[in-house]
Specification:
The chain is an alpha/beta fold. Helix content is about 15%, strand content about 35%. It has helices at about 5-10, 160-165, 205-215, 230-240, 260-265, 300-320, and strands spanning about 20-25, 35-40, 50, 55, 70-75, 90-95, 105-110, 115, 125, 135, 150, 170-175, 180-185, 190, 200, 220-225, 245-250, 270, 275-280, 285-290, 290-295, 330-335, 335-340, 345-355, 355-360, 380-385, 390, 395-400. The strands form eight sheets. Strands 7-4-6-5-9-8 form a six-stranded mixed beta sheet, with no helix packed on it. The chain has a six-stranded mixed beta sheet with strand order 16-13-17-21-20-18, sandwiched between helices. It has a five-stranded mixed barrel with strand order 22-25-24-26-28. Strand 24 (about 345-355) and strand 25 form a beta hairpin. Helix 1 (about 5-10) packs parallel to helix 6 (about 300-320) and helix 3 (about 205-215) packs parallel to helix 6. The protein starts with a helix and ends in a 6-residue tail after the last strand. Bound molecules: adenosine monophosphate and magnesium ion. Adenosine monophosphate binds near residues 184, 186 and 298.
Length: about 400
């Protein structure tokens, strides 16, 4: 049996980021940028007004004999247009926010600091002296042509999409999403729509894992349930060979019908198949042909927890992310953990910030078949291996499942 750390290391050593493709900008959310983005233009592309007001020469705004100067208004320029003449000494042009500053003008005064005869006024009085550059947003103030604005490896979020849009990237080079095959195993497992005959249970893992795969940023390819026969498993695996990763649930422990390992040995290789943890000791990792396979345990909680700890980082690495693991923080375990852990125990818990620290409450019965213990959980409290006890009020580490990876 190997440790969680060794398992993770051995798994990630076998995983590479996938190839780069071009996707439409609006489909790039959550993907990883595959090249540095260098601006081909200044942003803003032209000097423009930050206010609605008047463009003029700053020296014309100086008071004359203690009186506000009055200048002639020669026209206007709206956002989206350019002035058809220049501003000359003793004149001004009406200007709207975002409109290009007309040639000749070196300043803009906001409308609130002026007086005129109304919207079409042929004159304006300047009530305050303004300096050159006032209310003018210079070309290139935000981004200079030639500047590297985004680095390869960045995750694309809404703000990155805004910057890419402003620079004209209608398609974006990204690492493509992995396609992940999901195979449930077990003669007892039937699909959700079916009625439960004696001895049968519904395929919760297939749907849980499909959702978790999607949430991690991959395309899920749910292949249904393989019977506990070599033939049935072979058939499902041959279907899964076109995917980038295969995730199975069940069939990897030491029972008579735990055949996933056998097929791995037959059609590929087994790297390891047991981890010193609970829930989820029987986790197998290896390859079928050249496709990596993570064999997760059948118990739904074990499948869910081992997905978070091992499969999610794999998918993120394939997606080109460099931050692969959820953060771990110190928490006060208010209710303690009732049993000693010989294997490392990941205890489902709700962590909240209260009175200056993070406090964890475990979510009740920690049996690996108790699915409802996942419902309120946002963290896994770690009870170290070797028989450590966690009493009420003790501090422990917790993996934060709803915090972004670090
Ligand atoms: P196994 O690892 O195949 O021995 O399965 C361990 C436990 O998980 C058994 O109680 C199975 O019935 C249950 N189980 C296996 N696959 C699923 C599944 N897809 N959905 C829900 N429970 C499952
Ligand atoms: Mg089984």
């Amino acid at each position: 049996m190997i440790s969680v750390e060794e398992a993770l290391e051995r798994i990630l050593a076998e995983i590479r980021p996938l190839n780069v493709i071009q996707v439409p900008l609006s489909e790039s959310l959550g993907l990883v940028l595959a090249q540095d983005i260098v601006a081909q233009e200044d942003m803003p592309p032209f000097a423009n007004s930050a206010m609605d007001g008047f463009a003029l020469l700053s020296r014309d705004s100086q008071p004359r004999a203690g009186q506000p100067p009055r200048v002639r208004v020669t026209g206007g320029v709206a956002a989206g247009y350019v002035a058809d003449h220049a501003v000359e000494e003793g004149t001004a042009m009406r200007i709207m926010t975002g409109a290009p500053v007309p040639p000749g003008a070196d300043t803009v005064i906001q409308v609130e600091l002026t007086r005129s005869a109304g919207p079409g006024s042929e004159w304006v009085e300047i009530l305050e002296a303004v300096k050159p550059g006032n209310n003018i947003r210079p070309a290139g103030e935000d981004i200079r042509r030639g500047q590297t604005v985004l680095l390869r490896g960045s995750e694309i979020g809404p703000w990155e999409i805004g910057v890419l849009a402003t620079l004209g990237w209608s398609t974006v080079p990204v690492v493509r999403r992995p396609h992940v095959a999901i195979i449930s195993t077990g003669d007892e497992v039937v699909d959700v729509g079916e009625s439960l005959q004696p001895g049968k249970i519904r395929n919760s893992n297939g749907y849980l894992l499909e959702a978790a795969v999607r949430q991690a940023g991959a395309e899920a390819h749910r292949l249904g349930v393989a019977q506990d026969t070599v033939e049935s498993l072979r058939e499902k695996f041959s279907e899964a060979m076109q995917d980038d990763l295969i995730i199975t649930s069940g069939g990897v422990s030491v029972g008579d019908f735990d055949l996933v390992k056998d097929i791995m040995a037959e059609q590929g290789e087994i790297n390891f198949w047991r981890i010193n943890m609970r829930p989820g000791k029987p986790v197998a990792f290896g390859h079928i042909g050249s496709v990596p396979l993570l064999g997760l345990p059948g118990n739904p909680v074990s499948a869910a927890v081992t997905f978070e700890l091992f499969a999610r980082p794999v998918i993120r690495k394939m997606l080109g992310h460099t931050r692969l693991l959820r953060p771990q923080i110190d928490v006060v375990v208010e209710d303690g953990v009732s049993d000693r852990a010989m294997r490392r125990h990941y205890v489902r818990a709700r962590v909240e910030w209260r009175d200056g620290h993070f406090v964890a409450h475990t979510t009740g019965n920690q049996g690996s078949h108790i699915m409802t213990s996942l419902l309120n959980a946002n963290a896994l409290v770690i009870v170290p291996e070797g028989g450590v006890e966690v009493h009420p009020g003790d501090t422990a580490k917790a993996v934060m499942l709803d915090w972004p990876e670090v």
